[in-house]
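Feature request, filed as a ticket because there's no other form

It would be nice if the structure record came with a short human-readable summary line next to the tokens. Right now we just get the raw output. Example of a typical job, pasted below so the devs can see what we mean:
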Amino acid sequence: MEKFNNELKKYLSKYFRDRGFVNVGINNEINIKNDGKTLYAALVQRDQLFYLYVWNFSTKIEMDLSITLKPDKDKSLHQSIGMNYELNDNLDEILENMKSDIDNYISKFITIVNDSKEIIGVRK
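Raw output as currently delivered:
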């Protein structure tokens, strides 16, 4: 599982860096933390804070990317995308499926977030 986490961490770091994300307060690197069971990071893109979590459970892997848009004290919009994968003996296949889903769905999610900013506004 450690090899799986390291490969996924490397892939996610490159994926988000290539799309203009940066870590909160850590230069321009994407520093995804790995505590053995969870990968996590706070990422910024265009003044918006995203939270990334990947949890490894005994029977499944869950990934969640979320953001709360809060243009002022009265309005907020929470958005997230979650992906779940049943754990089996073929971690390489799970990793490839996750990479494919990240490529297909995360960019669409970010587009939805950016469209939502236009609807509810941004903090000035």
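Something like this underneath would help us a lot:
The helical segments are 2-18, 91-120.
The mean pLDDT is 87.
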